[in-house]
Amino acid sequence: MSTSPTPTLTPPTATPSLDPEPNLVHALDAAQYTDAARFEREQERIFRRTWQFAGHVSQLERPGDYFALELHGRSLFCVKDRAGIVRAFYNACRHRAHQLVEGSGHARALVCPYHAWTYELDGRLRAAPGAGRTPGFDRSRICLIPVRSEIVGGFVFVNLDPDAAPMEAWYPGIADALAEYVPHPERLRAACTREVVERCNWKVSVENYSECYHCRLNHPTFSNGVVEADSYHIIPHGRVLRHVTKSVPVESLTYRVDPDSHPHALDYTSWFLWPTFSFQIYPGNVLNTYIWHALDHRTTRVTRQWYAAEGVEPDLIEALAEQDLRTTVAEDVRLVESVQRGLESGGYRPAPLVIDPAGGVNSEHSIRALYEWLGEAMA
Q1: Residue-range definition of the domain harbouring residue 254
Q2: Residue 12 — very low, low, confident or very high, per pLDDT cuts 50/70/90?
Q3: Which CATH number do you get for residue 66?
Q4: What's the farthest any 2 CA atoms get from each other in the chain?
Q5: Please, are residues 29 and 203 in contact by the beta-carbon 8 Å criterion?
Q6: DSSP characters for 51-93?
Q7: CA–CA–CA angle 68, 308, 192 (5° rounding)
Q8: Number of domains the chain is built from
Q9: pLDDT tens digits, residue range 343-367?
Q10: Model pTM?
Q11: Is the peptide bond before 185 cis (omega within 30 degrees of 0)?
């Protein structure tokens, strides 16, 4: 009786070693972006210990103007006091913790809606009904709990860490650098806002913003109608990533720009301030800001606010904001959400970053800087 020959089994193709090369910088492992417990640690170690955008001074023009904000699980408000100083406080009455203000508005004094405890604009307790009949009650010892605040270029930032270094130590020279492009940033007014929710970890979105390695392939309008991608370079400095490049020739720009209106009229630049904010200036000295709001370990809301400067037409800003939303923003949303799905696939193993010692558009040295800042914060 004949028998069938035993089939020959072809061994699978050898898998390259997954061990990291010790002399290369590798991308972070998937758990950095998919672990809910890690995200909770980031809330405490990063977001509540770093400078965070709160608003613009145009929202606080007169003494008594205020606005409330929620910042990484903390309720705050900013107010201009009678001396013209912008202050930030936790939004909780010292009596029984009722929130003092909602939204934005104007007040001669801060009156708690619960029991009418009344505070001066600088946070000192002015009056508490019935307190005069309470033995030992000393209103001079009671004040709202302050939050560190600073103003850079007309933008208000707060830091929940009372011991944090000042912004100049974190972001050296940022105010002077911004003033070179927008000489009077305090005169800016918000022209329009665009907001998207990205189904990805906040670090995925920040990393995508912080390199242009992907720009030519994924952002044709930005790379061909706004900037010269070949000249794109990113410079880490302090806790800043400075993006610099030239615009495409005036005749190739997708919107109107007067090249003689400003020495930097044909430049593009941005300053990413670790961990979740960026100033960005488009050719024509159009300023917008990026704010990343980490909602959970796989959801990020990105708010882009466009500001009108002197001599810049509001209609131009609106058109540029819409173009940006339809092209670059929409393209980035697809990219970062695909990255998040890949990270959660179970089959991702980090490979080395591409780092050119000379920098340039195809180098990920800026991502290496983000990893260093992340490691220091989480250590």
Answers
A1: 185-378
A2: very low
A3: 2.102.10.10
A4: 112
A5: no
A6: -EEEEEGGG--STTEEEEEEETTEEEEEEE-TTS-EEEEES--
A7: 55
A8: 2
A9: 999 999 999 999 999 999 999 999 9
A10: 0.91
A11: no
